[in-house]
Amino acid sequence: MEKAIKEIKEIKGFLPRSIVYAGKINEDFAEGIAGFYKAVWEEREGGISTKQKHLIVFAIACSNNNIQSAVKILERLHKFGATKTEIYDAMMLAAWTGGIQSFTDFSSVILKEMERLGY
């Protein structure tokens, strides 16, 4: 396994399916996708933290009504120590950008998952 792919396992804690699938097509393609992941998720001095990045993508997933993705990101937020208030703030931002109907669609699932995770 190439360097960028190994680094992604360390940064994300798992190997994203897109890299696995790309590797079945072409090793260089998999390395390219791994490099993209690394550029996005690696913490840089003066940049935003991994937890903050997850809060941002969580809000985007919610505002796009991508509930399945939002639930997966919520699990990552839990791992990175996001507070209940931080998650609620992200949900309110999602309602602001995605609209109240979007909020209505994703909130029941997210609140249930938060309860399962012990929030």
Automatic annotation (TrEMBL):
Keyword Lyase: yes
Keywords, alphabetical: Lyase
Keyword Lyase: yes
Domain Carboxymuconolactone decarboxylase-like: 28-104
EC number: 4.1.1.44
Top-rank taxon: Archaea
Pfam family, one: CMD
Signal sequence region: none
Gene Ontology molecular function: 4-carboxymuconolactone decarboxylase activity; peroxiredoxin activity
Database matches in Gene3D superfamilies: AhpD-like
Protein name per UniProt: 4-carboxymuconolactone decarboxylase
Organism: Methanosarcina thermophila (strain ATCC 43570 / DSM 1825 / OCM 12 / VKM B-1830 / TM-1)
